Amino acid sequence: MSASPRETYERPHRPPRPEGAPAADRRSGIREAALRLFAAQGYRSTTMTDIGAAVGIRGPSLYKHVASKHELLAEIMIGTMEQLIADNTAAVAGTDDVREQLRRSVEAHIRYHARHRLEAFVGNREIGSLEEPDQDRVLARRSDYERRFRELIERGMAERAFGVQSARIASYSILDMGIGVASWFREGGEFTVDQLAYQYGDIALRIVGVRTPDVSGDDQ
Amino acid sequence: MSASPRETYERPHRPPRPEGAPAADRRSGIREAALRLFAAQGYRSTTMTDIGAAVGIRGPSLYKHVASKHELLAEIMIGTMEQLIADNTAAVAGTDDVREQLRRSVEAHIRYHARHRLEAFVGNREIGSLEEPDQDRVLARRSDYERRFRELIERGMAERAFGVQSARIASYSILDMGIGVASWFREGGEFTVDQLAYQYGDIALRIVGVRTPDVSGDDQ
DNA sequence: TCTGATGGCTAATGGTCAGTAGCCAAGATC
DNA sequence: GATCTTGGCTACTGACCATTAGCCATCAGA
């Protein structure tokens, strides 16, 4: 690698925008690449060089678009929780029936975990990688989200619509099922997102003791 | 920190076994410390110095007892899967009734995830940190374990004891619920391990469509 | 045509870390 | 008592990594 003096700059660096990359896309391209890599290799094992390579630039050039590696993680994780909470708010808004609210909440939960597998996956695995103002922010939102399910189930109990031994365990079961979806679901597999959401809705209702239409072994 | 020449060795290093550490315990002490640290900080963020400090020695001294950091992780993860499989085998051995087999399988699953929270937690989060002969070993055992639940549910369907839309989704739900336990359960909290196992057994039976004794809102 | 902003680049910096080398004291064995 | 083994230690090595410094080509707008 001797810098021969006669050819001062053979190929000094790539043109600023080799393909149609409209500059506003750069940042979101970086975010997506980071998400993909964080999901596949973990936050700690992903280097800025990796992320750069995924979008066609060098590691240090990323700092023209993002402040730090940590910022990328924090954005993903806070965004995930905000979206889950917003989806849940929308889900319960359309009805007052506690069974229907639970079904819709669960469907929204499953839909998010199926459609945004990587975000959900990273969001669950990398909580410990967040630094402190951000980790608290994420944990607070996560608590809020859990509380919504627990209180819904408690309301169902009070209205004698649901029957469970512990609302806390029921809500954890339901949430944890959904979290699991993010680790095994693949688009284009045996089920569509809609089918999945509906089935998990049924399962959640069974968990809280609501009789769902019986499914004999062979009608699906 | 100048090494003054007159006091040649003020305190060169600790005595080989300062307290009653019977030398066979050293290795398991290291394994336990590593487990605790891997669970709390993640594998990648835990240094050999951290693990050494947790057992009262320096990082490099660990290599007198273990071959590598990776070996510690692999031992934890393979051991976890082997134990889960062994527990499952024992659980189904005592009965032929498919409902009872499912209940006992789920109870064993929950018991393991509650009693060995850290192993289960690390076992789920650090799969990607395993290097290659070991990652395959763990994934193969994990597949085997999942298959046991799925096939049990399929048998229950064939015998008309269970009614679900998809045995695969039912088995994932049940397993994922248990995995979640490892992340929130604390000994000495609201429930004992036995209560937890029993409640999750009920929930699993509800998921597969078995009528469990009705629980009205206020009888527990 | 000039000029500033943008977004690439390479090189360097400061830090961390797994693992190795080689030293040594205490206890065990002979 | 001499010697071996065990399990500590410090110092070091080689690698990797996030981030900064500073350079420069292209492009948009004046």
Automatic annotation (TrEMBL), chains A, B:
Record's compositionally biased regions (Basic and acidic residues): 7-17
Key words, A-Z: DNA-binding, Transcription, Transcription regulation
Regions recorded as binding DNA: 47-66
Family matches, as Gene3D superfamilies: Tetracycline Repressor, domain 2 (1.10.357.10)
MF GO annotations: DNA-binding transcription factor activity; transcription cis-regulatory region binding
SUPFAM superfamilies: Homeodomain-like (SSF46689), Tetracyclin repressor-like, C-terminal domain (SSF48498)
Residue span of region Disordered: 1-27
Residues annotated as domain HTH tetR-type: 24-84
Record InterPro entries: Homeodomain-like_sf, HTH-type_TetR-like_transc_reg, HTH_TetR, KstR2_TetR_C, Tet_transcr_reg_TetR-rel_C_sf
PANTHER family associated with the record: HTH-TYPE TRANSCRIPTIONAL REGULATOR ACRR, HTH-TYPE TRANSCRIPTIONAL REGULATOR RUTR
Protein name: TetR/AcrR family transcriptional regulator
Organism: Streptomyces sp. NBC_00119
